[in-house]
Amino acid sequence: MVKKTIKKHRNMSYFIDAASKIMDEEGVQSITIRKVADMAGYNSATLYNYFENLDELILYASIRHLREYTFSLSQYINALHDNIDKYYEIWKYFCKYSFSNPEIYNNIFFVKHSNSISNIIEEYYSIFPEELGDHSENLLPMLLKSNLYERNLALLKIIADNGYLKPECLNDLNQMTILLYQGMLNKILNDEQTSSVEECSETMLRYIKQLTTSFIN
Which Gene3D superfamilies does this UniProt record tie to the protein (predicted)? Predict the structure, then answer.
């Protein structure tokens, strides 16, 4: 069983690497089953042994673009001791990298995917564990979640455990925060935002701080 899993992950990595390369060099719209299979050195039929469809493969390849974000967290977050400061810093880097790659992040966190790949981020990091970085025990579960609402709620629960937020308020705060973020991401995607990535990130972080502060005990 272990050997089969190792072989499966190795072969999946070839296809993911190929799709990621095409994505970086030609764009998401240029990724095709045939092109990926040729670059990976397999025929198109083999690809379907490991991926449900092209959309699933693109999602795997998209997750590679989380690498800079996760590495930034491992570099800067662990030095902070206050969990609210950590929460804001996590959002700071998430905005920075997602607003620089809005199509990729939108595909990962907001495009509707089938239930069979709901845990795709966790599987991705079992294939490429080196891309996850070095994180504390309470941050790691958040990074392995594929749903942005669940990721943020996990962080808010840590703050609530420290007594800063009431547990009964977490769902409302979480919903508002993600809707606020999604609105900004959509404006960038639709070219409705003339501000720079840095300016959008600063604005978003200011909104998140104002919103979170309004819920603090």
Answer: Tetracycline Repressor, domain 2
